[in-house]
Specification:
The protein is built from 8 helices and 8 strands. It is of the alpha/beta class. Helix 1 runs parallel beside helix 6.
Length: 283
């Protein structure tokens, strides 16, 4: 039987105070029969004692590499930069399925596995179920609101490249583009000038004086500015998925995210390394 256990590692990125697990979500995992190990961390938004009070076993800071290989390691952001092989199973935002061959190479050489959180998807039964959930989140039917998804087979054609006139005619814009090179702007200055007023200023856009003011919000690290709240929200959303980790070979959200073997082979080809694909243990 696959053990129900997790090891929460510390975060090593500068100023990162968020946590993939929180005392409240760890407490729920414990009630479900999991055994959590939590690395001590003076930078984490949650005090070590908060984890200890709900029943966690505390371990020394940044010692996950000494854990038994059958204990999965969970974190939030990337591992510290290194070329050392990784033999464990890790779950974190590695963004390593998008051409980061050096990261995948570490797992290949160590015999480990990485589940990239960026590849996780909600296990909705259908598109209609997803739409119903979004409508409920907005407090009703959503009637009257116009939404637009750009990229990821959304509702706006992107193969021709920007700018996208459609953006000027919606209330909700979801950007799902995955870009690895410079692309044309989504909107041009001329389009913004012709569109007229935007009345909720945050950062002013430089427009001719005779035009109504336009402001834009663009904060790429907004969740890290509210580390406790962001951690609670993210960890709560992830909780049901984590409870299925010991059944990851058959649970949809985990099997859909299990692209490691294919991407690892691509990484080896990128690095021009001799490589023979074999089955590695994923415990």
């Amino acid at each position: 039987m696959v053990p129900k256990v997790f090891w929460l590692r510390c975060e090593t990125m500068k100023l990162e105070r968020r946590s993939a697990l929180t005392p409240s979500t760890v407490g729920q995992l414990i009630k479900d029969g999991f055994t959590p190990f939590v690395e001590r961390d003076q930078l984490r938004m949650f005090d070590d004692e908060e984890f200890e009070r709900v029943g966690c076993s505390l371990v020394d800071n940044n010692t996950w590499f000494s854990a038994s290989l059958d204990i999965p390691i969970i974190g939030l952001k990337e591992l510290a930069t290194s070329d050392e092989p990784v033999p464990h199973t890790h779950t974190y935002f590695g963004r390593c399925y998008k051409g980061r061959s050096s990261v995948l190479s570490r797992f290949k050489r160590g015999g480990g596995t990485v589940y990239d959180l960026e590849s996780f998807t909600d296990p909705y039964a259908s598109e209609f179920a997803m739409v119903a959930n979004v409508r409920a989140a907005f407090g009703g039917s959503g009637k009257g609101a116009k939404a637009l998804v750009v990229g990821a087979l959304g509702r706006c054609e992107t193969t021709k490249g920007g700018p996208f006139e459609d953006l000027l005619h919606v209330d909700i814009f979801s950007n799902c583009i995955s870009s690895s090179s410079a692309i044309p702007p989504f909107l041009t200055r001329d389009q913004l000038e012709a569109a007229g007023a935007h009345t909720e200023p945050t950062v002013p856009v430089d427009l001719p004086s005779q035009r109504p003011p336009l402001s834009v919000v663009s904060i790429d690290h907004l969740p890290s500015m509210l580390p406790r709240e962001a951690s609670e929200q993210f960890s709560s959303d992830l909780l049901l998925t984590l409870k299925e980790f010991h059944r990851r070979d058959t649970t949809r959200v985990w099997t859909d995210a299990k692209m490691f073997d294919d991407k690892r082979a691509e990484a080896a080809a990128e690095r021009r390394e001799p490589f023979r694909l074999q089955q590695y243990a994923t415990t």
